[in-house]
Structures are given as structure tokens and as C-alpha cells.
Amino acid sequence: MNKNEIKNAGLKVTTPRLKILKILETAKEGHLTAEEVYKRLCDHHETIGLATVYRVLTQFEAADLVIRHHFEGGHSVFELAKETHHDHLVCVACSRVQEFVDSTIEARQQLVAQKYHFTLTDHAMVLYGFCARCKKEE
Amino acid sequence: MNKNEIKNAGLKVTTPRLKILKILETAKEGHLTAEEVYKRLCDHHETIGLATVYRVLTQFEAADLVIRHHFEGGHSVFELAKETHHDHLVCVACSRVQEFVDSTIEARQQLVAQKYHFTLTDHAMVLYGFCARCKKEE
DNA sequence: CTTAATGCAAACCGTTTGCATAGAT
DNA sequence: ATCTATGCAAACGGTTTGCATTAAG
Description:
Chain A is α+β, with helices and mostly antiparallel strands and 138 residues long. Chain A has helices at residues 2-8, 15-26, 34-43, 50-62, 103-115, 132-137, and strands at residues 66-70, 76-80, 87-91, 97-100, 119-130. The longest helix of chain A has 13 residues, at 50-62. Chain A binds a DNA duplex (25 and 25 nucleotides) through residues 11-17, 33-35, 47-52, 54-56, 58, 74-76.
């Protein structure tokens, strides 16, 4: 339950944190910017400041409840930390995000890291291009 | 020769553009932020505004003379466009950048794109971790 | 009651832009 | 002479922070 996730993170259970968690859970796109989270809160008639949204998302990130991605174009996107790791395809036209997993790529990354004596902590694998829909419209 | 590269890009051959190109060529690290380029120009006693550095780097990027990468942490880095494509390993402690190429990963990316009907225009593949030196110091 | 969390506005930082001046062709 | 490029300072957009107020434990 959400309350426990927040408690386990060592944070007090407050309305803003609960609402933000719910927004992320119910976002079918999965990936939202802080601004988008903020707008949805407004839509739901919640009065939560943008600063709080950033603060809470950052805390959730620190608690591994949320993952923050820095896609090209300056804005970060946040998604609920799911069980399974995955990477992203991003449409350069409509910004649609498609998740994918490729175990071959994952394995290769480890090999590359070993080759250069790096100990991986994280990686960013983002493919940019036109999605099927936007390709047509070109 | 540098003058021709600039001319071929449809740009006038000016001191700032020549100097910035030289800075990038002589940067052994290869990857510099706009700020770093600016500082080096100052070191060489050139009076070139930071705005010009950004403008020129952006023009060079448009002309495919330079590649801009958006690593995590908000700042972009620029590198001279080399013949060969490559990806990056970045040390999360010292920011050292190691280039690498893995044809298996490259091939797999195309497969993934096909699977989701994307036409790739670009990709970001950055591995983050501790380099050998920083790992020791932990 | 004590301490952490919020809202607001102001600060920040990297980057871009408007405008008058300087420079390239 | 014409038109692009530069420098400066001001604007910008996303994100963070200081501080007084409010709410959680």
C-alpha cells in the first residue's frame, strides 16, 4: 500500500506525497515530467506547489520509489520504479516513449564495462527516432 | 583545413569560429562543455563571449562538425565529429569519459527499433559507473 | 509538542536571444 | 556596401532553495 512505501522511505505520510504517488501509478504513459505531474494535480483540484512536486519526486528517487531519466531536450521525466529494468525508445516528433528490454544489449554493456575496468552503477540507453505514426506524417 | 570546414558549413571564417575549432581539436579529453571551451579561450587570451561559444557550437552541430551529448547532470558536452561513431562510459566520481564501440549493441538497436516500428535518427548509450582509479579510492 | 513538510517567491544555472556594434566578403 | 557575426546584458525554462507557516507523529 502507498502509505507503507512512503513510510519505509523514512518520510512522513502526507497528502502531497500520496497524491503524487497515485498520479504516477495511474499514468498509463508511465513517464511524466514534473510539470505534467503538477498539472494533473491541478486537474484533480489539489493545491500542491511545483516546488513540492520536485522535492517529493527527488525524495522518491532517493528512496528508489521512482526513477528519473534525463532525455534530450532539457526536461527530466519520472517513472515509478518497476520490478523490471528496461530502456527507452523516444519519438523525436511526438515524444512518445516506448519501453523495451534487450538482454543481449544488457549483457554486452557489462562486457564493455569490464573491458575498461569500470564498475557500472547505471546506464542510459535511449533510442531516438520517428515512431510509426509520425513517420507517416512526414 | 579548418577554414574550409567552416566555409563548407556556409559560415564566415571568423576568429571565434577558428579558435573554438582549434580548442576542440587540441582537447585530448575530447569532450568539453561550453563553459570549458570558454575558459580555455580565456586562458589563450581570447576575448570571446560565452554566448558566442554557444552560438558557434550550435552552428557546428548543425553542420555536423560537432556532436553534442546530453549527459546526466544538466550540462551538455561537445566533441569534434569523428569519422567513427562511438558511445560513452562516464565515471560518476571523476567525470572521466571513455569512448567505446560495440557492434553487437549497434546491431541490436536496429532490431529493437524495427520491432517497435521506429526509424532511428540517433541514440544515446551512456554507461555510468566508477572507473578503475575511482573504484580504488572508495 | 516537536520536528518534518509545504507553499510561495526568489535564486540558480545552463543556455538562448535582442540589439547595437564590429567584421567578413 | 552588404549582410553576417559578435559582445553584452537581459531573458528564459527547468529546477532548487530560504523562510515563515502548516501539518504529521
